[in-house]
Amino acid sequence: MNKGKWWKISNSVSCLLVVLIGWMWYYSSHRYKPPENQLTTNTEVEQQLSKYDPEGTKERISTGLFIQSIKFNSSSEVNLTGYIWQAYNKAKYQNTEDQDIPIGVIFPEAVESADNIDPTFAYRDPIDDNREVIVWYFETTLKQSFNYRKYPFDYKTVWIRLWSSDFNRNTILVPMLESYKSTKKDDIFGYDPDIVLDNWNFRGTFFNYRYHSYDTKFGIYEEDADQPTPELYFNLEIERSFLNSFVIYIMPLMVVASLAFGILMMITQDEEQAGKYGIDTNGVVGICSGLFFVVLVSQVQIREQFAGSPIVYVEFFYPLMYLSLLGVSVNSFLVSHPNKGNNLIITWIHYEDNVVSKLLYWPLILGSATIITAVILLPENQRTDSHFQQEQSLLPGTFGLGSNTLSPSLDLNLHNWDAPFWQDKQLAASTTFHHCLTPTTYQIPPTT
Q1: Closest CA relative to residue 373, chosen from 423, 325, 312, 425
Q2: Within this chain, do residues 304 and 325 fall inside the same structural domain, yes or no?
């Protein structure tokens, strides 16, 4: 047997598989595509609403958000803080104390958290003689379902689902797109650029509408109370940073695989050579047992991180490592076992002092890793998170109730909004907040 030739073939196949895995990793980390159902202009907003309110009889409430922090409390809970503002007729709250003005939205997916604070009135400022903008500071913890299957090559859509506090369905929340510098599909807006995301990177933000049907009328006895209604969402698309997860989870598995191969290379029938290595079957089993517990602890840590989620991509490599360590231990036993009955397997193991097992180790390991990577990472991401589907829900918790409406005949001319009025307010914590507003005009279609 020409060992040199076969080692070249084995090494070449292994290198090819490494390159293939690396390409799939690169492809998976650069395949993000922004969703198509974005609201980028006021025209698109009205086109969407025309399907639900073709005559324009529903009152529109212009609403904007600015996110200052995001924190993942668990694999299914995300905590957000920031500012939310709405435009109203001045007469609506002219006789109401600032601190008594209720926030005009409901966060239906909010869950109770000891760290949450009630929405706090921030300030109000006139737009013109008839209109004013009212701003609140909010903090909420949202319960959401995320798909971690492709971890660490996954991205998430953190969505803020907004309901109008008017349960009579006489109002519709509309995004105040003119509050932002630009809302094109490739733009990122509505967040603090200094926000700390740990191992995540922003890929995009956008507003959109989603229609939901419920199996209850919430106590409203109208003919169309159970019809699908448009609900406003503000979405933040984030992508995980691969390097941190690679160092923590994948690199240790690579080291364990390399150590297992080093042990396999020291397994020999030559007693003199084995004496130099100082290793026998008992030693091999002991080392593999130690490496097994190292891998097991790592897997427990990653499973705790994604408790309640299906097996993620990187977890498929742990069974592969278990089989590798078991295979090396069994190989050591078979090499030292005499072949008295001309057993074909033992004959194959003994051939050229266990050279076949050594030649096949990396191609088998890397070939299996390639198949796992192709099956998990290559399929296109399907946006099937629960927020894209029709939902059934109970009555949610609220952040304040009240009939906060704005006449649909009002013309929200924001040309009087300027930077100084933001700076005059006592909002030291939101030094970047005023940058998300820009002078423009938003014309709400009059009632027909």
Answers
A1: 312
A2: yes
Does the pTM surpass 0.85? The reply is no
Q: What is the pLDDT of residue 382?
A: 60
The span from the CA of 178 to the CA of 161, in Å, is 20
Residues 114 and 257 in one domain: no
| Inter-residue contact 199 to 245 (CB < 8 Å) | yes
Whether residue 296 sits in one domain with residue 211: no
Least Cα distance to 240 among 68, 366, 381 occurs for: 381
In-domain check, residue 448 = no
Structure tokens at 149: 């299957």
- In angstroms, the CA 123 to CA 135 distance is 5
Within this chain, do residues 262 and 293 fall inside the same structural domain, yes or no? yes
pLDDT, one tens digit per residue, over 149-179 is: 999 998 888 999 998 887 767 788 999 999 9
Quickly tell me which residue has 């940073």 as its tokens: 241
What CA–CA distance (Å, rounded) separates 348 from 337? 13
Tell which of 351, 377, 403 closes a domain: 377
Query: What CA–CA distance (Å, rounded) separates 325 from 321?
Result: 6
The angle formed by the CA atoms of residues 279, 285 and 291, to the nearest 5 degrees, is 105
**Residue 398 CA to its chain's centroid (Å):** 25
218 HSE (CA, 13 A, CB side): 16
Whether 31 maps to a domain, the answer reads no
